[in-house]
Amino acid sequence: MTEASRPPGRRIGLSTASVYPESTAHGFAYAASLGYDAVEVMVGIDALSQQVAAVAQLADHHAIPVCAVHAPCLLFTQRVWGTEPWGKLERSAEMAQAVGAEVVVVHPPFRWQKEYAAGFVNGIAALEASTGIAFAVENMYPWRASSRRGMEMYLPGWDPSQESYAHTTIDLSHAAIARSDVVEMAVRMGSRLRHVHLTDGSGSAKDEHLVPGRGVMGAAEFLRHVADSGFGGDVVLEINTRKATSREQREADLRESLEFARAHFAVGTRS
Predict the structure, then answer these.
(1) What single-letter DSSP state applies at residue 156?
(2) What pLDDT digit, counting tens, does each position of 4-17 carry?
(3) Start-to-end CA span in the chain (Å)
(4) Is residue 196 a contact partner of residue 226, using CB atoms and an 8 Å limit?
(5) What is the three-class DSSP state of 165?
(6) Could you read off the pLDDT of 160-202 as tens digits, one per residue?
(7) How far is the C-alpha of 260 from the C-alpha of 100, rounded, in Å?
(8) Are 138 and 174 in contact, with CB atoms under 8 Å apart?
(9) What is the pTM of this model?
């Protein structure tokens, strides 16, 4: 699909998390060289990802927009931008505003963050009202071992389609762990679905973030569904390339992922 023929707003972005352990700067470089439309910045332990000016300079240098900022709410980023969770979200919104992104991706609170969790739904709505940024709450999963029942580790819950958030994100790898039907989840979310993390999973207890099409999540069918349903947000590739033995192999996985998205994220026959 050419840029001229692509429906407005239907961008395919690359998460900088997809190139780890390479840096945020490498993420922008891969996105630009392979022809991605945009970049999602994962704010993490890479110092560049935490600096608004550095992110803006990377976007300008590579002439590629930032479509989203992923707030530092993972276990290993608990101390990035301090330990106060609302402060992290406020700083994420400030970065988004500064670089022209319209979305902040955020995870539901962990169960042990009781005070944060108690006010999370209303707090997210208040942040959206005060900043003008869409805080798209991402689906997570019960924590489980292969032979054990899942443990509820997120509050108010791991499935944002069950809450009243105005904006949500679907991640196919997380859905694979939860054994969720992503098309059904998208139907429940309806117009609240604002952002997609395109990846895949086998259904194991691991957060695999496979190249789309290499798992069991029906990524192609899901993309066709959201395209047909009028989804106007961005689809961002968030895959795991940590096991790539060379830059060439990582680049090949990123290219395959982009080609998959281009092939299936189009208006289908029901439009």
Answers:
(1) S
(2) 334 445 799 999 99
(3) 17
(4) yes
(5) coil
(6) 999 999 999 999 999 999 999 999 999 999 999 999 999 999 9
(7) 27
(8) yes
(9) 0.93
